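Researcher: Structure for this, please.
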Amino acid sequence: MLINSSINLYAQDPIFTQFYSNPVYLNPAFAGSNKCPRIVSNFRNQWPGFSGDFITTSLTYDQYVDKIKGGLGVILMSDQVAKTLKSNEASFVYSYHQHLSRKFTLNFGIQGTYISKSIDRSNLTFGDMIHPRRGFVLSTQDVINYAPVDIFDFSAGILGYTDKFYVGFATHHLTEPSFSYISTNNTSFLNRRYTAHAGTEISLNSKSLFSEEEKSLSPSVLFIKQGDFQQLNFGLYYRKGNYVVGAWYREGDSFIVTAGMNTKLLRIGYSYDLTTSQLGVYSGGSHEISIALKLYCAPKKKSLRAMSCPSF
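Model: Predicted structure, token format:
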């Protein structure tokens, strides 16, 4: 049921559990940080235990370009809420890379986004549709826009890193664009989304000549705030050779387990959110799959460092 009131409404962005598997969506300053071209696809099915679908999919391409001393990226995303609300986005990203020293690099990213939001009125019910005896049999007088609502949006981010640690901050929806599906004075806003993240990689390899598989721990933390909503994630990944496992906690919401495989050409990851909030076991948790294809490129100069960052 859609409830009409005189207060302003605020939209919330979809957030991926495997946020580092879709780094350019997390922070535009990540564009080109892998140096070689990469294609990343993410699929998230949230709360499958409830009626309706909460499904988010994305496809991202980014690479470093020598001539512009930075990275370029394209993000395509679709978000569906309960078979009623749908949002399609297309973003273009540029990130300038500045080497401040032999070990430390600072990236500045900007992002322009076209957003198209639409609503399926056939799946909505309103208070004026209720007959005292027969239920939802009347027609509503509320006017809903059938045509998609088009929005232009802008975001920015900064990222600093060495081959051992990284720290970044991003702000999405800088202009807080407004939109409305209902022909009243009510207006919905895309609140600014503030994202702060940091982490490091700790090598566990011994100096033995017989040790061939690389082993490491990658603890990191993520904080997101959008309007009254805020989210804190912290956890770590353990990598041994091509295999990665991880454990995370999203404060007040869920425990997360992740497993994946990471080779020179292909990366595949799966994560499951075990809900601990009041939604409980009835929500069915959340499932997420990420697939990345790392394309070949000519060897880069040593000054063009690829950052040490988790992949899932």
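Researcher: Any notable elements?
Model: Residues 1-10 have pLDDT under 50 and may be disordered. The domain at 15-294 is CATH 2.40.160.40 (Porin).
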